[in-house]
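User: Can you fold this complex?
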Amino acid sequence: MTKTRFSIWRGDSHGGGRQDYETEVTEGMVVLDAVHQIQAESANDLAVRWNCKAGKCGSCSAEINGRSRLMCMTRLSDLPLEQGVTIDPMQTFPVLRDLVTDVKWNYATKQRIQKFTPRTPDAEDGTWRIATVDTERVQEFRKCIECYLCQDVCHVLREHHLHDEFIGPRFMVYAAALEMQPLDTGSRVKALKEDFGIGYCNITKCCTDVCPEGIKITDNAIIPLKERVADEYYDPIKRLWRKLTKT
Amino acid sequence: MADLETHDYDVLIVGAGGAGLSAAIKASGAGVRVGVICKSLLGKAHTVMAEGGVAAAMANVDERDSWKVHFADTMRGGQYLNHPRMAELHAKEAPDRVRELESWGALFDRTKDGKILQRNFGGHRYPRLAHVGDRTGLEMIRTLQDHGIHQGINFHMECTVFRLIKAGDRVAGAFCYEREKGRFKVFRAGAVVLATGGFGRAFKVTSNSWEYTGDGHTLAYDAGAELVDMEFIQFHPTGMVWPPSVRGILVTEGVRGEGGILKNSDGKRFMFDDIPENYRGQTADSENEGWRYTQGDRNARRPPELLTRDHVARCIMRQIKEGKGSPHGGVYLDIAWIKEHLPNAREHIKKKLPSMYHQFKELAGIDITVEPMEVGPTTHYAMGGIHVDGDTQMSNVPGLFAAGECAAGLHGANRLGGNSLSDLLVFGSRAGEYAAAFAREQSPAAIAQQELDRLAEEALAPLERFDSAPKDADGPYQIQYALQEKMQSHVGIVRLEHEMAEALETLEALKAKAAAVAAYGNREYNPGWHTALDLHNLLTVAEAATRAGIERKESRGAHFREDYPEKSEAFAKVNIVISKGADGAMNLRQVPVKPLTGEQQAIIKENA
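Assistant: Here's the predicted assembly.
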């Protein structure tokens, strides 16, 4: 069995750089296995965030050979090992230590979005009736595991650092899930335009490309939301109506 | 100490999975100040991994279902060691808790008339599991999280409780460290709810993540609370076995619920060969009847693949031991075969079991709509845990509550699939409600600075020791691996007295090593240090499980003794309760099981 070289970013908020480690690669291993092996063998204090190791919790996001991916779902057999493997923390968020980044901004951002507000129950026993076809669209968005890889690759956040003005693809998906929830009566359209910066997205689909759940973020979430905003604010008849009624 | 941050709450909740979040929402709804400590980030707790569904007798699919049948099913599955009051409350309240989730935004799969759809699962007589494909846990935790963040609850993420703090008899708070900078935090509270999950990390092959080191069990035990039923550890029959790095990852029982069958290397469907007497009347006679059951035929009985998990796991082990296993040491789980019955089988499987399809495709390169999966038992769930009052979820330590997997009682000797998500909701809510009421009566307790200094010193010891520790001493990871190896081989699915006794000797030796373990590096996000601190918890629960396993000289539910392969009448009447003696030794005693009420007896008889 040959050893493979892993160049892993080590450091903290003050700076750092890649350090090389060698470890043995065996059949079926994923990147996270290699990181754990290195941690146990030669770098006990190597900081890495993980939980389920099955692509369900979205904790182990990182940049592997420059691509934003989950470490637990990236098989080493799919990488060109002879060139070595580089592992860096997500670049869009401040690094805490090694591969761990500070993602608290995402939690604060979610809190700004109007919460689920159901209509009154349909049945006397306090329950609702929902057709399967009405659940399907939203269920795609509800698959999101909050790995924030989409936030990591979104150039509005990554290059332009507009974290204060743009909520990012993850929360566009979240807003879409609420807007299209068959029971929800709230409206986030105004906020999407004025506070959440939906106009910043120029639909390059980088987010869709990296989504480990295969959510069609741009096509199914962001574009329909943009359409709602356009309908509401740029439809000439509605504009006239608003002017007349001063709403 | 300069860096000691202090927080005051009425109710402090330790753990942010389904139970912890349910407790937090109910407690904050009662108008008290609530803080939640999460070992990881919010929304990442193990609830997220639950796949199949949440059991609640809503009778949306089969109107014959009721809380009474659910109660009887739960008691039978637990071999009557369950706390009957908990089993009754659970069956009665689960439907309301599921509907509550819907009112908070959860979007379950639907029946044709628009109600919440329910699916079949092992040990449940009627289709009972509300679900969202095979990602029910994600739906549940996200719903609780997204609702919870608007309830005025404070979340402390990536923070771990090191020890509970008491004031006299009652619990008064917790001493914690946060991962980011390794700083210590003190939380003062009128009541503490432990909702820390299980201890699958005490075993080598497990579906549990790094977090599940028996923290709540150990915090409670060290604070004077009793543990019960610690010998009962559920080995889920179907975990992945290949590739090696994914060994143990869960394959949902939903695969069998949707018609998946188990086969050995001869291609034989072996589950029909061994059907326990107490389930014979409820089990299909033929493969055809079993198939019809999975497709909703109300007159058909369930296929033997949907017998209780303890039984299915042992049947799989037997096939493997007899040399009829699959190439990588499992057996075959086949869902692709349903194409014999369904023309659109491929799409059907992808719709019903999307994350299983994804998991096998990505991690094993297997298309489950075409090929069978290789599966084997994996450590999944601790039935045992903190001994609590059935109504309030309070332990014998005043102000210390527990809910979810780290509490015990509901499941007895074996948990039915789907009963854990409902357990989290029902008893998480109850714990939150009663903890809030308890906390309101308390006045803040003084915590001695001396005590805090001592705890800080103890927590820092592994880092302080590093420079003077012998270079060839085992590090934290090596000690953890040794514990996992021993528990897996000696206190696993099939148990023997002398092997468990040997395991105890190993645990003693590992305790000595853990007491001297050194961790490299500084306090900032240092997993080596955290692993060192978790060792005490793992060693405590491993010892409790092993001692209880030795004490119970019979086979029942998840506890199988090769040297006592039959059930014993004497042990049918007792739970094993564990507490910490004044001298620090682990004490065991047999306590009579909680008696059934007359009504409960009648319900069990009616639903035999």
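Chain B touches chain A through 68 residues (CB under 8 Å). Residues 459-592 of chain B form a domain with the Methane Monooxygenase Hydroxylase; Chain G, domain 1 fold (CATH 1.20.58.100).
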